[in-house]
Amino acid sequence: VLNSKYIKSRTIWKLLSEHGKKVGAINVPMTHPAEEVNGFIIPGMQYGLDTGNDFAYPPGLMQELEKAIGGYKVLYGDMISLYTDRYKDLLKEWREIVKMREKAVLYLMEKYEWDFFMAVFYSVDVMQHHFWKYYDKSHPKHKRSEYSEIIPEFYRYIDSSAGKILDRLDEDTIVMVVSDHGAGPEHKAFYINKWLAGQGLLSFKKKYTYLWKMRLPHMMYKVLRRSGVKAIEWTVPIPYLPFLWRHIDPREGLRVHELIDWSKTSAYAGNHTEQGIYINLKDREQGGIVAQGEEYEKTRDLIIEKLGDLNDPATGVKIVDRIYKKEEVYHGPYTHLAPDIFVDMKEGSYLIQKEVYHKELFRLADKSSGTHKMDGIFIMKGADVKQGVKAENLSIMDIAPTILYAMGLPVPGDMDGKVLNNLFRDSFQEAHPVKYLDAESEGITDGQGVYSPDESGKMKKMLRDLGYMG
User: Domain-by-domain residue ranges, the chain?
Assistant: First the structure.
């Protein structure tokens, strides 16, 4: 399970701390274990364990929040709301989490001195994944429902919280409202590993054919898993079976990488959050068979060519908008670890899924009806910020260097993104030219071993309940 120790560069709060700035961050993903900073960090999202004494930095902060506001929760997800239309517990929990988050942010803003404060409100993301089909009348699974106003309801919660935060700030404080992505409809799944198999680029181990070609009873998969069959990663917990046995295909819990015969596979897809394809490359993959150089490029070009002609047989319409080679998306010393190909389909309404057991290549999306979009939100205000200016050609990577610039600090030379200095008043730009520092070598941290197998299992379950892992 990914954690903050996998980050190979200094974070914005670490950089600010090194320059003597006081920082606070609450609910930011990928921040557990919390770093030692000149201030405080309360980790966010990827965390599904107890928020005990060592959860936040400094130690004891969670106990302080317990006394001050009555408790704190990071997130909530459950299998029932993910696979059915039973949302009572989900909505109850998230309405409570929204209130807790607001109380925590306002308390920390007033209790502690800070130069930089970052708070993430995550609830709208969960609501959009679950309730887009009720909100969007053009969605193929749309139905009239009491849930049609859930997404606007949670935006109003966040708007109210933002208003209370602004009420506590003076006019000189620079405020940024940023989303890490946009949102929109998710219509269909494309089972790309099945497609790769059909192209002769992926093969399966014969010994596991019975696991994915036939739908066996749920309890059979439980028995097989307990007997040591490695190809079964998870099964539906017994307490959930009365509600979910019809809704969840037990084959969803299969480890696809265990089903694959790597000695006969040239390409494969991993988790759906990547939306990419890996070439089974020698010297990178454990069972790699494709040689670096000419064979690699030929394999990649072949896949790109065939994907470009792909149609949805139900509509006859081409579904691929654009295909990227990884070097068009990433650069730097870890590019070799990224998927070799990225696929953008129907403005993100079609998504790659790794499962192999469906008969069809395309099916209506089942767990989620809303998904992420490339274009998000950016709003900035402050005494030194221009008014009425439309910011264009932005990237989320521009935020960190712009924060450093706004706080009068130099930007590391190896930091991605550009400084949005054109959004500041001319007088501020003249008095504060952009400054850069030479890139420094970083101490490489290792995220392996941070969590025990039991902790990793609990966190994977939480991410599955939220729909981020298959």
Answer: 4-183+374-437, 188-372
